[in-house]
Write a structure and sequence with these properties.
Elements lengths: L3 H15 L5 H21 L4 H19 L3 H14 L1 E6 L5 E6 L6
Antiparallel strand pairs: 1-2
Helix pairs in contact: 1-3, 2-3
Bound molecules: magnesium ion.
The site of magnesium ion has 4 residues, from helix 2 and helix 3.
């Protein structure tokens, strides 16, 4: 199991050593950019998609550190939440199959 807090420390130390700031808005933009790079490579059949995914996660971990989030806890909790969710199958007007989440009091 990966220790997110240790990774965050490593990421923040690297940023500090390189002289990067902690601008959360800029980091949101960079995370989008990295995801776009991943899609572009995937779409063109180029290698390096996994490395771009890693870049996205690095930015997410850095932002989580700066915003005080425990991203590991959030991730584990969200995976469990998704497991407990119920969906119903629907057919759209154009005949395509889709799913709609059934909302509950606990998960509105
Ligand atoms: Mg990249």
């Amino acid at each position: 199991m990966v220790d997110f807090k240790e990774l965050q420390k490593e990421i923040m130390e690297n940023r500090r050593q390189k002289g990067f700031g902690n601008d959360v808005v800029y980091d949101f933009c960079r995370a989008y950019e990295e995801l776009s790079e991943a899609f572009s490579k995937y779409n063109k059949g180029e290698p390096g998609v996994a490395e771009e995914f890693a870049d996205v996660i690095i930015f997410l971990l850095g932002m989580s550190h700066n915003l005080g989030f425990d991203l590991e806890k959030e991730l584990v909790g969200k995976i469990q939440k998704n497991k407990n969710r119920q969906y119903k199958k629907v057919i759209s007007a154009d005949g395509k199959e889709g799913f709609i989440r059934i909302k509950t009091d606990e998960d509105p």
